[in-house]
Amino acid sequence: MRHLFAIALLTATSFALPASAQWINNISEASFDVGAGISYGPSYFGSDDAELGPWGTMRNLTLGVEDGTEKQGFSLIPSFGYIGDRDAKDHDELEGMDDIDWTGEVGLRLNYVAGDATSYGAVRVGVGGHDGLVGEIGTKYRFIVNDKLTLWTTAELQLGDDSFTGTYFGVTEDEAAASPNFDAYDPSGGIYAANIALEARYSLTPKTSILGKVTFGRLLNDAGDSPIVQERNQPEINLGIARRLNFRF
């Protein structure tokens, strides 16, 4: 699975770079939303309990060209992710399981913009709680309701290699021996979840907005079959304040 992710990344880069070379000299502006707020969702992957936590976001990248229009076609940009820690002592059902530290993820994302629709694929490597390869493929569509309100709908598949799924959905022999609840379980990598989401941005000023997102996720395949998973359905709500940052070249 790790090799498949690496091949996907190299393939995406080989297609994107020639396309990028044709327009990169014409880019005059890059802008994106940076926000912070609160998240209400599962306590950990597969939990049936929800909790409040912090939410940080960097999204809605727009590349502008010299004539002032939004960049269409392919673009290759950085991709970042974050997964919070999992402490077994905070959840009775996880007795005997190892703790998992928080994880930062860094990688690349390939976008294809056609009008208000954006298709994308991303690959990232984890540093911290897991050291696997993760990513997603999906499509989002933008609805500009008026000069203050913009909506996005998203459909997405999430992927992880064996190392990732083993960390968050697996049970080692030692953990099984220490746990009264779980037998050993070694999940394979692949598609581990599917998400649909509705996101909204309401402009308070030209640069500052209220940003909200409602996501319905469902765990699939070996991840969904994990004995750790109490609930396959994984809804999440995010709400915060975002600032639009612009960089001109």
UniProtKB/TrEMBL annotation:
Position of the signal peptide? 1-21
Question: Is-annotated flag, keyword Protein transport?
Answer: no
Keyword field: Cell outer membrane, Membrane, Signal
Localization per Swiss-Prot or TrEMBL: Cell outer membrane
Do you know which InterPro entries this protein is assigned to? Answer: MipA
Q: Which Pfam families match?
A: MipA
Q: Which residues cross the membrane?
A: none
Q: What are the annotated GO cellular component locations?
A: cell outer membrane
PANTHER family referenced in this protein's UniProt entry, alphabetically: MLTA-INTERACTING PROTEIN-RELATED
- Similarity-based family: Belongs to the MipA/OmpV family.
Q: What is this protein called?
A: MipA/OmpV family protein
Organism, per UniProt? Paracoccus aestuariivivens
